What does this fold into?
Amino acid sequence: MANRSVGNRTVSRDSYTNLPRHNLIVCATLVQNPANLGGLCRTAEAFRLESLVLADEAIAQTPAFKNLSASTHHWQPFTICPIESLLDWLTQQQQSGYSLIALHTSPEAVPLTQFTYPRQSVLILGQELTGIPSNVLERCDQMVTISQFGLVESLNVQTAGAIAIYEYVKQHSPRT
It folds into this structure.
């Protein structure tokens, strides 16, 4: 791919890295499945997000991650934050002006369709099956949920993350 159509303009692969990114960081430190993380990487790169946070850099080298990321791992910036450092890292993000938004199935959570993302946001995704631990939820500025209408109580973390990312981008992309 020598040139790529991005938005309403064509850019070369060389200048692609200099294009602006959305000020959304997706914190997937708690997510453990490499395939889910590869799908999140692909979504994060498609929407030019600031960073995808992983617990371990080695997970991006696994075949399951690479298969789903479809080479986007070469273009999407990563931040590494081990689980044991997560609370400190979240505090640092808040001190840098980011709002911490937990994607969580909870009656207290605001429906995503009624939520306005702050421009500088960290979207925190939970571990498959167990979600976001209470000590992390307590640190968050807001909890959002995706309204569902079926019998299943939750979505796959990659799917839920993609929906929440899309809503952020919809709110913060320039109108063309």
Notes: The chain has six helices and nine strands. The chain has a mean pLDDT of 90.
